[in-house]
Design brief:
mainly alpha; two-stranded antiparallel ribbon; 2 strands; disordered C terminus
């Protein structure tokens, strides 16, 4: 919003049809953020990112559901090592909980759906004015905030006092808490905006695979910073999953999908605008 008010970025003016589409995208954006945060609260950051390595597979199947075009068997077979690696890492994870695993898988599902629906909305011929990838994400975030804020106040509002008491007991000042929350929000927003910029230029599955490469850095950094113990089997499973995603991306490039007419609840593209 400061960028809009200062003129650094042009103010977005989505068309009625695009705004309606982005309202649906915002539902999945908010649900994905909620599922990811809950998952990290129930398990280790490194394990959550191992499970999140499955996101490209979710994106592929969501894309199949939207386009009604089956994946080549070579592409489908390349997903087996990814699933096997995540399964191996899961059974050997010292901090494994079904709640963490379930929330991370839910995050995969809703974020993959968000990516596919966002790509359809961004490729629409009736987007409105100044609706580039960055402004599209900004509008989605604002709508998602309006959706989730009342729910957060109802569910978490009564717990706010107890939570602040825990923060104070841990020796944190209010200034430090505000600084950390603000920094986390800005970093998370910037990361997601970059992801939308990439999504505006490539297919959802390509963006999802690139996002998985980032998880290697997150897993290693989290293990070092939080000193999260990882068993040799967990390390092997994580490596198999990450390398499997790379293999999947190469095979997917060898067997690209033919041009399709994408039909969804958001938009029906005419033949001359097939994606």
């Amino acid at each position: 919003m400061p960028q809009w008010l200062t003129g650094i970025r042009k103010f977005p003016k989505p068309s009625p049809s695009n705004l309606k589409a982005l309202q649906k995208v915002a539902v999945f954006h908010g649900a994905g953020q909620l599922a990811t945060v809950v998952a990290m609260g129930l398990g280790s950051v490194s394990f959550v990112n191992v499970v999140k390595a499955l996101e490209p597979i979710f994106t592929a199947f969501i894309g199949v559901a939207v386009t009604s075009v089956a994946l080549p068997w070579q592409v489908a077979a390349s997903m087996i090592p990814v699933c096997a690696g995540v399964g191996l890492a899961s059974v050997s994870e010292l901090s494994f909980t079904w709640g963490c695993f379930g929330c991370a898988m839910l995050s995969n599902l809703v974020y993959a759906t968000r990516a596919v629906l966002s790509k359809i909305a961004m490729d629409s011929s009736d987007k409105g004015e100044n609706m580039d990838s960055a402004n599209t994400f900004a509008v989605v975030t604002l709508i998602s905030c309006l959706y989730t804020l009342p729910i957060a106040l109802v569910l978490e509002g009564p717990k706010l006092g107890a939570g602040l008491a825990v923060v104070k007991a841990a020796g944190w000042t209010w200034a430090k808490l505000a600084q950390m929350v603000t920094a986390t929000g800005l970093l998370y927003y910037t990361y997601n905006e970059m992801a939308f910029l990439v999504l505006g230029s490539v297919a959802p599955i390509t963006q999802s695979v690139g996002n998985t490469i980032k998880r290697v850095v997150v897993i290693v950094a989290a293990s070092i910073v939080f000193r999260t113990p990882m068993t040799p089997m967990g390390i092997a499973g994580s490596a198999v999953a990450i390398l499997g995603v790379l293999g999947y991306s190469f095979i997917k490039g060898m067997y690209p999908d033919p041009p399709q007419v994408i039909k969804s609840a958001l938009i029906v593209c005419p033949p001359d605008e097939a994606l």
